[in-house]
Amino acid sequence: MEPELIAGLLDLAEDKIAEFRKETYEESFRQYLEDHVPVWNMICDTETDDRRQEQVRTQAVDALIHSARERTENIKGRSKREKMQYQLNLYMVSYVLPAVIAWQKRCNRPEEETKAITDLICGSWQEAFGARIQASDYASIQAGFKQKLCFVTTAVCRGLQKPQDCKEIKLMKQFRDGYFSESTEGKQLIQEYYDIAPTIVKRISKEADPEEKYLYLWDTYIKRCVDYIENDRNEQCGCLYESMMSELKEEYMVTDRQEHKNRGKGHYKDEQAV
Questions:
Q1: Which run of H or of E encompasses 230?
Q2: Are 117 and 206 in the same domain?
Q3: Contact 168, 226 (CB under 8 A)
Q4: Cα–Cα distance between 60 and 10 in angstroms, integer?
Q5: Most buried by CB count within 10 Å: which residue of 41, 91, 178, 265?
Q6: What are the residues whose beta carbons fall under 8 Å from the beta carbon of 25, sequence distance 6 or more?
Q7: pTM for the structure as a whole
Q8: 219 with 165, same domain?
Q9: In order along the chain (274 residues), what is the average pLDDT of each group of 10 residues?
Q10: How many Å apart are CA 107 and CA 128, to the nearest integer?
Q11: What angle do CA 108, 113, 119 make, to 5 degrees?
């Protein structure tokens, strides 16, 4: 096992996140998968016996965790550390985990074996950083880019048994494609939204009572946003929408707020949406 190869993956995080866009992700991921075949072979080793296989995989994941920890601990300032942790979380779910899944499929490995590997990575990552990352394959991520949905609003409305073509979804789509797209800041927010919203929706769906979260988002944000839109108060809707995304990003993508409350200090955490 060559830990420097594993650790070297994280050297690419910032550049790869910059390429995590609808226009560039397909080619970026394809090249990434081919450039790091030795790493995928180590993690997905099928040549050794089961006991040795488990040992090699554990060592590979430990090397990945150690490298990530070094990067975050060497950064001064909580906000900068949180930004780095967010980038690493996003990198893991958009490149590392999809690459592991893709390589397993290429090697014709069974799904249960693939799940065992991704569960090991996600579990170790959460234990180290409090980051609840989850594995998605390349096809699911790419499909999210192509659909251009209002993911959070759609998920909330579905959770509350509203139809796919309900008024709220239509108005929020119009607001996104109109008011927000008219400014540079709005376009940046939309892009960030497409990058992280699918992960947020997936995290909510995994909670014990997602309907409770949907109802909270509906009462606190979406219903009020729709009221603002209907009364031509787009600026107020924009501010409220940004607040919603900021809260969701903090809860599901960056910081484990419950750990923060319990310990008195920040711990870090990590498909698409409005």
A1: helix 223-230
A2: no
A3: yes
A4: 13
A5: 91
A6: 19, 94, 141, 142, 145
A7: 0.59
A8: yes
A9: 75 87 88 92 66 78 89 82 81 91 91 89 89 80 61 64 73 78 76 76 81 85 88 88 85 54 38 36
A10: 29
A11: 135
